[in-house]
């Protein structure tokens, strides 16, 4: 992906700007960041580190495309070669207008310019631009490298083709662009957030609840719902089988109740700021900001993985991204005179156990995945499984030779020992990236008819490709450790 | 738990009432439900089924305590024996007052009475009661069997000891009771929800976004954040290292912006209801309500598991519940003249693969867990591992004999084949609950010093208990299949 990926420039390297940088670099785009603050790089480093950490845990095959974030010392240097320029400077229209003036001086004609503003109308932002047709709002959410949502909003002078182009770029880095067709302050998400925020401020000010109690009311309740379904889909279920109409009829009258205080806005004066900050310290002060960010990221990664497994919502975006990378890394027809490379993997931290190394069952998981990759290569693909049959493992022997810990890179090579009729005998070697042998897996597989669940003959096509592999691999040495039984002494083997 | 568990009565068997019933029954409490609607049982069955389904997937050892939901034909029958009575009738103070009158006629003196109201003040609810001191609000969130939050609110006449008692009961079924000390319409969560709801209605009415777009703005963005941290803790991170004070100073001015329309409430007239219902059909109409509920529940289960793994938020509650059950099911000193029972498990659906059966790596996961259970029994506990050492698996042999599919019950028995010095040789048998042998696992383990990561001698205490097991188990037959190598023919064995 990296070769033809658009080049990204970020102007402003704060929490949002560096979040953008992490998102694009982790997904193979060269990124140039400019920020006039001399400490900008140092401040951004925290977010970039968090992004790297999160992507290792996301465990996408994106490590092959990962690109660099370049901090440069002038705006010109950052943008002159960029296809997409993202402005992430403070929410002040005067500052932003000045930045656009600078950007227009140096940007290429075809560059798209996006503002990260969370509330200012794009029509206002583009008012003084020379080429306003290429400005749009692309409003992301913190942490930008993990949350998929980006709101796209054009102004009166924006060319919709620019929004289309931007949309493709954002999709390619795993985001969910939401094109909001009508301009409004705060767009969609921040209007909802602002409503909650104002209500929450009242609850603290009126001493109904502390910041911690309010947060608990969110994360033990509706927050769990909203990680996977939104406001309306959730309420559709509140009405039971009768659905949305019933819900609206039943709960409509509540709108007349004085359930919120939002006819008015609390004044955020020193007293209230102090009160909230104090409560927040009590609630979260035992963690540093970086610790809290990493806890948040670990939770988001785990939630994204959970939803990916269910092929739903934000997890679906992740699955799509993974497919893109897998398509990228499909190797050319391999040289079969050697054992076949069937797996590459960074050890996720959740694969480790109380002994602080990869749990024994993950060895078999890797060997199982390697078997699947080998089978795919000889033609046992989704279509074959749907219509012809599959291979089941009948017997397994594993030698756990060395430990491996979280974040280390491992790979597997597979030797086809023998095959006859329904039987297939494989020998996997699991290596550390430093070349040391971590484990071996020896497996006997049986071809099975998935309807009768009984042993059956593979098709001729499969037999042919397996035979080819067996011929090549019987030229290789018999693997050390093959044919062992558990507890066999070395001189017995 | 079930023996001394309080008896629960639910008055009103709608989505909330039957959700309560599922929560309590799945956690071992006998539940009696009364609802005057003759179709109540049929309607509630959907929620009870969903609850059962979700708890199987939650995979707690709660299957041992699971109790019954009894639908009874009179309020008296439901409540006369109950320790906790939950009212879940429509949000109408006249109806609720009448129900409390009936409840007070038949309830035991010591019973606690909870209202599920989402907005009415407890002081109003208890106004006409004879014994108002025992009424409180216990406001849960749909689906009640999965979401941990329950808001507890007392009225002017409520005895705080009643709230304390209720809190313990709710904690014991895995909930997170949030005691709100100051009465206010809508309490805390529903005030926040109401704010979002009103803003969302405006967005639809003003045609800024459809219900689907609004939902996407939630579930691809801040909904993911709120599943694990709340409003304030999230914003604390928006301020970078400077934290909450910086965030408030930076974003305070936004409060002056016209970011929400909540100075006014949209009229939920026929036109708007029709518009929303139509959009909701377009968005979610391809699923039945039951399908959508199960998708939601699968997502919530997966998110709860993800957070449990990270020991955070709602996942921490789940971990706690699991520990409670594990403490419950610690068996008395086993009869060691037989192989030791070391695992019981319902196969979770996420353990199955494209062959529609339990993936091969899960066999080793089960054997690994069984090994851990055996080691725990001989004294290798957290304290031993912290200070003395641990066992690492050096070699594994698995015979995959029969398939097993999702939701089936399995168990493992473990025979200690031999032990000498650092070596420990185990033989596991994995059975289906119908008694058929699914797989065997033969393992050689080595005792290791966790500092040097080298083989080392176990302590005398461990040696003694292992020796006792070996002595007993060498009286048993040598397991069929032991000592096999992969591909060994039957007459070779």
Number of domains of chain A: 3
Q: How would you spell out the order of helices and strands of chain A?
A: EHEHEHEHEHEEHEHHHHHHHEHHEEEEEH
How many strand units of chain A? 14
Largest sheet of chain A: 8 strands, mixed
Low-confidence stretches of chain A: none
Give the chain pair forming the largest contact, with residue counts.
A-B, 156 and 156 residues
What does the oligomeric state look like here? homodimer
Under the CATH scheme, the architecture of the largest domain in chain A is 3-Layer(aba) Sandwich
| Name given to the CATH homologous superfamily of the largest domain in chain A | NAD(P)-binding Rossmann-like Domain
Question: What best-fitting shape of chain A do the alpha-carbon axes yield?
Answer: globular
CATH class of the largest domain in chain A: Alpha Beta
End-to-end separation of chain A:
47 Å
Strand order of the largest sheet of chain A: 3-2-1-4-5-6-7-8
Task: Give me a quick take on this structure.
Chain A is of the alpha/beta class. The first copy, chain A, is built from 16 helices and 14 strands.
Write the layout of secondary structure elements.
The structure is a homodimer of 493-residue chains.
Chain A: E1 8-11, H1 15-26, E2 31-34, H2 40-58, E3 69-72, H3 75-79, E4 84-87, H4 93-106, E5 112-115, H5 122-125, E6 135-140, E7 149-154, H6 160-171, E8 176-180, H7 189-205, H8 211-226, H9 231-238, H10 243-251, H11 270-284, H12 289-309, H13 314-329, E9 340-346, H14 360-378, H15 382-387, E10 390-400, E11 409-420, E12 423-432, E13 437-449, E14 454-455, H16 460-473
Parallel strand pairs in A: 1-2, 1-4, 2-3, 4-5, 5-6, 7-8
Antiparallel strand pairs in A: 6-7, 9-11, 10-13, 11-12, 12-13, 13-14
């Amino acid at each position: 992906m990296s070769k033809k990926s658009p080049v990204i420039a970020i102007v402003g390297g704060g929490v949002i700007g560096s979040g953008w940088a992490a998102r694009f670099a982790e997904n193979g785009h060269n990124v140039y960041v400019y920020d006039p603050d001399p400490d900008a790089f140092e401040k951004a480093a925290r977010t970039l580190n968090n992004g790297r950490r999160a992507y290792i845990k996301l465990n996408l095959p994106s490590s092959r495309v990962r690109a660099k974030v370049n901090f440069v010392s002038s705006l010109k240097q950052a943008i002159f070669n960029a296809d997409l320029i993202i402005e992430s400077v403070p929410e002040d229209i005067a500052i932003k207008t000045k930045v656009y003036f600078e950007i227009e001086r140096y940007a290429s004609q075809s560059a798209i310019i996006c503002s990260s503003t969370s509330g200012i109308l794009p029509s206002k932002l583009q008012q003084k631009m020379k080429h306003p047709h290429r400005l749009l709002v692309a409003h992301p959410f913190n942490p930008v490298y993990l949350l998929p949502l980006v709101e796209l909003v054009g102004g009166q002078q924006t060319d919709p083709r620019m929004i289309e182009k931007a949309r493709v770029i954002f999709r390619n880095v795993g985001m969910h662009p939401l094109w909001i067709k009508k301009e409004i302050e705060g767009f969609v998400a921040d209007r909802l957030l602002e409503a909650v925020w104002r209500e929450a401020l009242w609850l603290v000010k009126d001493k109904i609840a502390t910041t911690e109690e309010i947060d608990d009311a969110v994360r033990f309740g509706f927050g769990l719902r909203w990680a996977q379904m939104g406001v309306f889909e959730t309420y559709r279920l509140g009405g039971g089988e009768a659905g949305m109409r019933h819900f609206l009829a039943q709960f409509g009258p509540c709108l007349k109740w004085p359930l919120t205080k939002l006819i008015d806005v609390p004044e955020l004066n020193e007293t209230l700021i102090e009160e909230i900050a104090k409560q927040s310290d009590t609630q979260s002060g035992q963690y540093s900001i970086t610790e809290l960010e990493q806890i948040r990221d670990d939770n988001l990664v785990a939630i994204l993985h959970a939803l990916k497994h269910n092929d739903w919502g934000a997890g679906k975006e992740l699955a799509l991204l993974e497919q893109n990378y897998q398509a990228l890394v499909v190797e050319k027809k391999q040289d079969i005179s050697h054992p076949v490379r069937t797996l590459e993997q960074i050890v996720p931290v959740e694969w480790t156990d109380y002994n602080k190394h990869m749990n024994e069952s993950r060895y078999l998981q890797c060997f199982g995945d390697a078997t699947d990759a080998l089978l795919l290569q000889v033609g046992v693909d989704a279509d074959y499984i749907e219509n012809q049959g599959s291979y089941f493992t009948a017997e397994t022997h594993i030698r756990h030779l060395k430990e491996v810990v979280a974040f280390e890179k491992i790979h597997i090579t597979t030797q086809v020992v023998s095959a006859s009729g329904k039987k297939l005998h494989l020998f996997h070697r699991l290596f550390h990236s430093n070349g040391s042998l971590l484990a071996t897996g020896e497996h006997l597989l049986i071809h099975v008819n998935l309807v009768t669940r009984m042993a059956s003959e593979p098709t001729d096509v499969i037999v042919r490709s397996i035979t080819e592999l067996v011929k090549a691999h019987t030229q290789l040495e018999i693997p050390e450790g093959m044919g062992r039984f558990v507890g066999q002494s070395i001189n017995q083997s």
